[in-house]
Amino acid sequence: MQLLLKPFALLGRGGMTLAAGVGQWGRLTAETVQAARHVDVWLRLLIPQMARVGVDSVPIALFIALFTGIVLALQASYTFTGAIPLYFVGVLVGKTMMLELGPVLTGLALSGRVGANIAAEIGTMRVTEQIDALETLAYPPIAYLVVPRVLAGIIMVPVVTALAIGVGIVAGWITAIQLLDMSSADFVNGLTLFFLPFDVTFAMIKATSFGFIITSIGCFFGFNTQGGAEGVGHSTTRAVVVSSMAILVLDAFWALVLL
Amino acid sequence: MSRAKEALVGVVIVAAVLLVTFGTLWLQGVSLRAAETEVTAAFTSVGLIRPGNNVKYRGVRIGRIREIEVDPQGELVLVRARIQDDIPLPEDAVAILSPESLFGDWQMEIAPRDRFPAYRYSEPREEDHLPGYSIPDISQLTATADRISADIEILTERVGIAFSEETARNVASLIENTEEVTQRLSQLISQQADAFVGVTGEIQETTAEIGEAAVGLRETLDRINATLAREEVGEALNDLLAVTSNLRAFSEGVEGTSDQFRMTAARADSTLMRVSSLLATVEEGEGTLGMLFRDPGVATEMEGALQELQLLLEDVRLNPRRYLRLSIF
Q: Sorting pLDDT into bands at 50, 70 and 90, what band is A58?
């Protein structure tokens, strides 16, 4: 009997843990919104966080987008040749980069880089009791640590994503001209054929939500770090994994809701 | 935090904003240099047209679709597009929605109404709106083709049922017979053609002869006319008229004589009838004469009587006084 109940018990425990974690993350989010009133605390920290979250992430994001654009053009050409006019390479590269790969790949890359960074930094502060010291000094730790990072993520992830989309499309364009039997006019014709301004809006909505998810989850796992260096590593790993999963779930959610 | 780092953040943000803004405008086909104007066309339906699709005039792209909405009355769909301001559109311009390729991209083409007069354009409520017509998309055409193919399939099945092997054999036989008949007809026609050629030649010869005869007849008639014109002929004709008059009188006389002759003949006929009847009676042996003819004894007696009569007459001639006594007083 015990053996039969064990899987259900594990499932129930996992569900309760998930629900508890979501609840704690929701409470931290609510406290972050409340802490946003301490503008004097977080404002001076915003620009440095934007630099760390955004500017420092631009190279890796553009690198990923560059090769994504190249591969997209080549694979589209491979698929379309003999069946569909090649100007649809432009359609595929443009639509895919804007609607899916630009935001998602940038989000995943930043979840690994930024989310892990935030979780490790705040987790270290937690295990070294620096956060406790801030509370002792009546300094709002959430306004000091979480708000600038979350705001930096909300602002800079769309910026990085926009740059990544642009680089990916240009990489696909150059690939189509140089490596495929396509003219620049063909590629641009395909690129503009099915373009809708909403495509850009959709990409920015997704990128903004990804920025919030990456930073807030990083902050959440950092704040809840327990133990020493091992706990920091554990929190960092979990932050990356959970934020990556959340990005994919959110990607499906937006596609379901907005498209 | 160095000022350079802060500037770098600003540069990245500005670059991204510019990229998004100008990239969107460029992909929408918005030209920042050329002036644009808005045109609105009314349609009863719009097929697969979407904002961002091309607007063309004489095959040249002059703008893009901006907005699609149903009009307040709900009867028309208004399609708004921005086109180049320097394009002179015709007075009777209409808008036609059609597929730009087979892959689902549509376009709006602006054209003079008389270029496609058969289309049933919508009647817009506003004067400055263009009448529009949307060509059925490929899915509607394929649906119609599907219905037609289904009908053809039914028809084919029915033909298959009706067209059995026996029917096929009959048809093959019919074709062979037709071929044979055709060959025979061909031979007959070729023979008739030869005969016809011969007849035609004869007709031609005959016609020529008739022509020659007609010429001779004409000459003869001319001569007759010339002859009739002379005085001797006139006198001869008068004499002929007199003779004809006499002949008519003679004929009338003969006709009267003929009447008498007819009456005499009738009488003779009646007499002959009686004689015939009499002879028939005699033939049957009735009466004295019949008995005379039929009975040989009577004839013998008659002969004897005649002989006696001859003797008597001889005696009378010789001795008249014995039999005749003539006294005047």
A: very high
